[in-house]
Amino acid sequence: MSQFSSLFNSTRLPCYGKDELVRDEKARHLVVMCNGHFYTFDILDPNGNIVPAAEIQACLSHVLRDRTPAPSHHLGYLTTENRDVWASAREKLLQCGNHSALKSIDTAAFVLCLDGDKVTDPVQLCQTFLHGNGTNRWFDKSFSLVVLRNGKAAMNFEHSWGDGVAVLRLFREIFKDSTERPRVHKASAPAKIDVADRVKRLDINLDASLTASIETARAKFDNQVNSLGINLCEYPHVNKAYVKQHRLSPDSFMQLALQMAFYKMTGTTTATYESCSTSAFRHGRTETMRPVTVLTKQCCEAFAQQTEHSAAELRAMIDACSAAHNNLLKQAAMGQGFDRHLFALRKIAETHDREVDIFTDPAYSGINHNILSTSTLNDASVEIGGFAPVVPDGFGIGYGITNARSGINVTSYPGSHNPKDFIDCFRSSLDDMCNVLESTKHAIQKH
After folding, report:
1. pLDDT category, 445, cuts 50, 70, 90?
2. Rounded distance, CA 64 to CA 179, Å?
3. CA angle 375, 411, 127 (to 5 degrees)
């Protein structure tokens, strides 16, 4: 996969009109954010080898011991601004003598965010890892590793350079390495080195216009994240093994439950996006898989009128939806979807100032206003993933089904839908589907 080369030492630079992705393969340092400050130290030696874990531990301990008061204006808020506004502010930062500090942040292997919180509530954890309070984040980096004081950790990643498949590979390797072969544990002693020579706190120079820009960005950020509703649920009774023993696709089962949940809420179906990786291709990113079909619509309607259909009929509909879903996924993964092709044609038409009928058709606008934006990362190392809706009146739905459990993380903005209502309908839909599976399993086994 070509995305791995942009995983480390890369960042998204704000530019007017179009941002730029930059990386520095020669950089050897890490940037740590703690209490709103930026710290940097090398994690690779001149030969490109990782320095001993005890030395990294000593540097991190030095950072955690620093009692410098938090800055009055947190620079990271600017990375949440409109990109042209941020590009203008960045120019001012450079004019104020911050070139070296910004270069250190931009070229770092990644950003490690050490938060002082001890969050345990699932919803608060999602909020912390998705956006936090903005004071200890730099959202332009390819990814940030966020670690709480109680050891809970997550990756927050910028999406333009790559997709979840690359991040999941790194996440899985970190989890495996840290649980099976931990280099540092409670009894570990940090190396006795002169950390003052290794760790540098980056000084940021701000003028009045920059502090005003930061405060404006902070107000916008607070308004947006405070309005974002988040709710989640875990459904331990449904896992991969359970679904497979009923000869169904786990992904199709989850997607059908999402469709039924929305139908229970609204009485309608809607435009739905499911991300499908095209990593089989050298420069593959994603294709849109469209989970809503005539079959899923018929199935949702039938379950809403269960008294008019037998369990066997409902089970046959679930089977048909699963088969169609698998076929669509295979087509999308092999580049046979239509969304990315149409998107490319639309962009080409725009560069030539040409108006093409299909791109002004209400149907095309409708399928690109994705009320349900869904994505999944299934791995034992991942508890949950999540993101905000892609349209103001939509849902952002991160879902997963593993060998142990299934669950979803739902976000929405006010005035559209309530994520808790969706969660309730999702649970009810899974219950309905499981009841049908259980009542027909003997017939399926005999068949």
Report:
1. low
2. 23
3. 105
Q: Which of 88, 71, 37 is nearest to 213 (CA)?
A: 88
Residues facing residue 375 across a β-bridge: 398
pLDDT at 407 > cutoff 80: yes
Q: How many CA atoms, within 13 angstroms, populate the side-chain half-sphere of residue 339?
A: 23
Question: Which amino acid appears at position 25 of this protein?
Answer: E
**What DSSP string runs through 166-234?**
HHHHHHHHHHHHHHHS-S--TTPPPP---HHHH-EEPP----HHHHHHHHHHHHHHHHHHHT-EEEEEE
How many helices (H) and strands (E) the chain has is answered by 15, 14
Task: Give the Cβ contact number of residue 283 at 10 Å.
Answer: 9
Q: Which residues contact 121 (CB under 8 A, 6 or more apart)?
A: none
CA 425 to CA 417: how far, in whole Å?
12
Distance, in Å, from the CA atom of 256 to the CA atom of 315, rounded to the nearest integer, reads 13
Q: Give residue 118's pLDDT band: very low, low, confident or very high (50, 70, 90).
A: confident
Could you read off the pLDDT of 347-364 as tens digits, one per residue? 999 999 999 999 999 999
Amino acid at 58: A
Buried b (16+ CB within 10 A) or exposed e, 95-107: eeebeebbebbbb
Beta carbons of 395 and 371 less than 8 angstroms apart: yes
Burial 328-351 (b: 16+ CB within 10 A, else e): bbeebbeeebebbebeeebeeeee
* Residues 27-63: tens digit of each pLDDT: 999 999 999 999 999 999 999 999 999 999 999 999 9
pTM for the full model? 0.92
Cβ burial 394-404 (10 Å sphere, 16+ → b, else e): bbbbbbbbbee
Catalytic site positions: 159
